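During data preparation, a discrete fold description was generated, and the record follows.
___
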Amino acid sequence: MISSLVQNQYAMVRIIVFLLWSLLLCETSFGKINHTFEPIDASFYTSNPNVIDSKLSVYRISRGKYGLNGFIDIKQDLSNDYMLELYVLRSVSGNDRYIPTAIRMPPKNLEYYMNKVYKRIIMTTFSKCAPNSPQFQTEFKAPLTKRRFDLNKCLTDTTNFPYVRSGFYKVGMRFIKPYNITWEITAKTVTTDHF
């Protein structure tokens, strides 16, 4: 009985050591993954251009460097009643069909999206190339006030991107309530691990 108790404790110690080493590995390698995100195509659809209008296009900045140009025009204040979802589709070669990835955000309200997705992933990019885009330090609270912001040679900052394999991706952000409004960007992503 005592030997089985000792074996159980030994097994627990091994599990704890394994978990600690895993945490240490994650902590030391976090931020050492480098992504390049090269937009290939950008599209926009709205069921009501009186609420939001937009036009995005891919722009060649220099050899091998592409960014986004265009505008986003929010024509009225957006309340927290607006529901958004985010999806990411992947293709190995870019010519075949795109399949869903595990990266997605089910429909959530505007405040959730602005605090969890926009602030973490998009806001840094827009701060460098889109004057008048929403910028906030603490927690975002609705409404998102009406504004127009122009995107001028926006290069995507991938610092806070989740890990993705190299390939072709379609990243979509869609308002699903009360209107159908969708942005979709197709991009080639190359991932370099630095472990």
